Amino acid sequence: MTTLKVFQASSNQKNLQQQGARDVSRALLKNKQKQARTPMPNSTADTYIIDGNITIFIGSHSKTFKQDILYSSLLGHLVSNANSIASDVWLTSYKKNMGTLFWVTKSTANQLLRKQPASILKFAKPTLSNHFSATELKQITDALDAIKTLPKDSDALAALLNRIQHSNDSQPSANTVCPLLTVISANKTVISLRPVFDTSHSVDITILDEELAQKEVLNGPQISQWLTYLVEEKYASVRNKVIEKLGSKITTHLHHLATPEPTTPGDV
């Protein structure tokens, strides 16, 4: 009898161990299936040049949302360009025009910095760091670096150079740097920054992320920040009108930078 009880106890323990192993296997399989169904976030930024200004999408967004941001922004640029692109009037006009296209302002800020070595990334980072993780900041940095590889004869580069090689009206020998950098976060917040400063000579595309020496910077940069979001439901009512107004300018003034597809283990 004692031997039978020991055998039964041993058998029960073995059954429990086997059941536990099956439960663990099912849990692992379920978790693996869940991960397979969960879309992976974009590992690279999606970058566009809009009439010479830079727009970067971080995270996954629908094609319709991207087009709404890009097309409305392009129309706002074109309507505002009657004013000098380096002036405060241009930015005020652009923001007003975007308001009519249902870009709602969350906050604005202006800052005048002391004279110092200058690059677009240097002046943008303090604001971007408040809205993006280190990984996302790396994507933005990589996007700016990729812009520098644009072909020298490309329309996108020519348009961008117009924003960083703008003739200074008051000082003919000086150059004004005045690009608008817009980054859209994964939660659809639109962060726009425009640094404006003068240089003693014409600068090239490396000003995006390589600092210009302080002796070549003529004044302290003025940084304008603007946080907005697009009211998508309301914009839908004017979407077709915007596309109609833009016409062929969608292809001539809007440039998409091709990004390499992320590789997977099966691609090698």
UniProtKB/TrEMBL annotation:
Protein name, per record: Uncharacterized protein
Top-rank taxon: Bacteria
Record lineage: Bacteria, Pseudomonadati, Pseudomonadota, Gammaproteobacteria, Pseudomonadales
